[in-house]
Design brief:
mainly alpha; 6 helices
Protein backbone atom coordinates (compact mmCIF):
# COMPACT_ATOMS: atom_id res chain seq x y z
CA UNK A 1 0.00 0.00 0.00
CA UNK A 2 1.49 3.33 -1.03
CA UNK A 3 1.54 5.98 1.62
CA UNK A 4 0.26 9.39 0.64
CA UNK A 5 2.45 12.14 2.01
CA UNK A 6 0.67 15.00 3.74
CA UNK A 7 2.25 18.35 4.49
CA UNK A 8 0.59 19.73 7.58
CA UNK A 9 0.96 23.45 8.32
CA UNK A 10 1.99 24.58 11.79
CA UNK A 11 -1.44 26.15 12.35
CA UNK A 12 -3.15 22.92 11.32
CA UNK A 13 -0.84 20.88 13.58
CA UNK A 14 -1.82 23.05 16.55
CA UNK A 15 -5.50 22.62 15.71
CA UNK A 16 -5.21 18.82 15.39
CA UNK A 17 -3.06 18.46 18.50
CA UNK A 18 -5.62 20.45 20.48
CA UNK A 19 -8.49 18.40 19.07
CA UNK A 20 -6.82 15.10 19.96
CA UNK A 21 -5.82 16.32 23.40
CA UNK A 22 -9.34 17.60 24.09
CA UNK A 23 -10.84 14.22 23.16
CA UNK A 24 -8.33 12.43 25.40
CA UNK A 25 -9.18 14.72 28.34
CA UNK A 26 -12.94 14.50 27.66
CA UNK A 27 -12.76 10.70 27.76
CA UNK A 28 -10.60 10.85 30.93
CA UNK A 29 -7.75 8.99 29.23
CA UNK A 30 -4.99 11.50 29.97
CA UNK A 31 -2.81 9.23 32.10
CA UNK A 32 -3.09 6.30 29.72
CA UNK A 33 -2.45 8.47 26.66
CA UNK A 34 0.58 10.17 28.22
CA UNK A 35 2.14 6.85 29.23
CA UNK A 36 1.49 5.43 25.76
CA UNK A 37 2.86 8.49 23.99
CA UNK A 38 5.93 8.76 26.21
CA UNK A 39 6.75 5.09 25.75
CA UNK A 40 6.21 5.25 22.00
CA UNK A 41 8.33 8.36 21.31
CA UNK A 42 11.41 6.30 20.43
CA UNK A 43 9.25 4.25 18.06
CA UNK A 44 7.27 7.00 16.37
CA UNK A 45 7.25 5.22 13.03
CA UNK A 46 5.83 2.04 14.60
CA UNK A 47 3.30 4.12 16.50
CA UNK A 48 2.31 5.68 13.22
CA UNK A 49 1.85 2.23 11.69
CA UNK A 50 -0.32 1.24 14.67
CA UNK A 51 -2.51 4.28 13.99
CA UNK A 52 -2.92 3.13 10.42
CA UNK A 53 -3.94 -0.32 11.67
CA UNK A 54 -6.47 1.23 14.09
CA UNK A 55 -7.95 3.47 11.40
CA UNK A 56 -11.52 2.07 11.59
CA UNK A 57 -11.76 3.07 15.26
CA UNK A 58 -10.25 6.53 14.90
CA UNK A 59 -12.37 7.31 11.86
CA UNK A 60 -15.38 7.41 14.20
CA UNK A 61 -13.87 10.56 15.76
CA UNK A 62 -11.86 12.18 12.98
CA UNK A 63 -12.58 12.85 9.32
CA UNK A 64 -10.53 10.99 6.70
CA UNK A 65 -8.39 14.06 6.02
CA UNK A 66 -7.78 14.71 9.73
CA UNK A 67 -6.87 11.10 10.29
CA UNK A 68 -4.35 11.11 7.43
CA UNK A 69 -2.85 14.37 8.69
CA UNK A 70 -2.60 13.01 12.23
CA UNK A 71 -0.85 9.83 11.17
CA UNK A 72 1.65 11.84 9.10
CA UNK A 73 2.13 14.38 11.84
CA UNK A 74 2.77 11.85 14.60
CA UNK A 75 5.78 10.42 12.77
CA UNK A 76 7.70 13.40 14.19
CA UNK A 77 8.70 13.12 17.87
CA UNK A 78 8.33 16.87 18.30
CA UNK A 79 4.64 16.59 17.45
CA UNK A 80 4.24 13.70 19.88
CA UNK A 81 5.84 15.85 22.59
CA UNK A 82 3.55 18.76 21.68
CA UNK A 83 0.54 16.44 22.01
CA UNK A 84 1.69 15.27 25.44
CA UNK A 85 2.13 18.89 26.58
CA UNK A 86 -1.33 19.83 25.29
CA UNK A 87 -2.96 16.87 27.07
CA UNK A 88 -1.22 17.88 30.30
CA UNK A 89 -2.29 21.52 29.87
CA UNK A 90 -5.94 20.64 29.22
CA UNK A 91 -5.98 18.13 32.05
CA UNK A 92 -4.63 20.81 34.41
CA UNK A 93 -7.36 23.21 33.23
CA UNK A 94 -10.00 20.54 33.87
CA UNK A 95 -8.59 19.90 37.34
CA UNK A 96 -8.56 23.61 38.19
CA UNK A 97 -12.18 24.02 37.01
CA UNK A 98 -13.30 21.09 39.16
CA UNK A 99 -11.39 22.47 42.15
CA UNK A 100 -12.93 25.93 41.67
CA UNK A 101 -16.42 24.39 41.44
CA UNK A 102 -15.82 22.41 44.60
CA UNK A 103 -14.54 25.47 46.46
CA UNK A 104 -17.50 27.60 45.31
CA UNK A 105 -19.93 25.07 46.82
CA UNK A 106 -18.36 25.43 50.26
Amino acid sequence: MDKVSFEVSEERKKFLINKIAQKVVDYRLSSVAIVFLESSKPLTFLGNQFLIFMQPFYRAIFSYREYEEITAMLEDRNNVEALICEIERLEEERYERKRAEKNSRH
